[in-house]
Design the sequence.
């Protein structure tokens, strides 16, 4: 999760003119640009910016919650509780794995967008040896 937050922070710091990303489509390494049905990098930038507070809020709500007391357990309900605990652990593990995949994907997209933005800036900025008139 830390990598995701660092990547979005870097994107927010580097992408000063998001409009430069309009009409620019993401490219896979070694592949031709794909334009059919895909969103351009400007739309991805807007999406990534919108997702960040949701992720931060979700993280804060998870850390703010405290476990509630459940009262006393009897021996008969203890076995049932153990089974439910095992199911909950399995479900939690499944959801955490899914969350990890989503965050990895978002981090990769954020880093690719930032890299592409830097390439665009290099293309439009004058070279060192040329006058800038």
Sequence:
């Amino acid at each position: 999760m830390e990598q995701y937050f660092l990547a979005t922070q870097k994107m927010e710091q580097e992408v000063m003119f998001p409009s430069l990303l309009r009409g620019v489509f993401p490219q896979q390494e070694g592949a031709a640009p794909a334009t059919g049905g895909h969103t351009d990098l400007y739309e991805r930038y807007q999406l990534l910016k919108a997702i960040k507070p949701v992720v931060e809020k979700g993280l804060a709500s998870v850390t703010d919650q405290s476990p509630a007391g459940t009262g006393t357990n009897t021996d008969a309900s203890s076995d049932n509780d153990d089974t439910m605990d095992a199911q909950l652990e399995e479900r939690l593990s499944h959801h955490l794995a899914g969350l990890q995949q989503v965050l990895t994907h978002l981090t990769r997209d954020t880093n690719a967008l930032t890299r592409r933005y830097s390439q665009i800036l290099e293309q439009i900025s004058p070279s060192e040896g040329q006058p800038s008139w």
Residues 75-124 form the longest helix (50 residues). The CA atoms of residues 26 and 112 lie 8 Å apart. The chain has a mean pLDDT of 80.
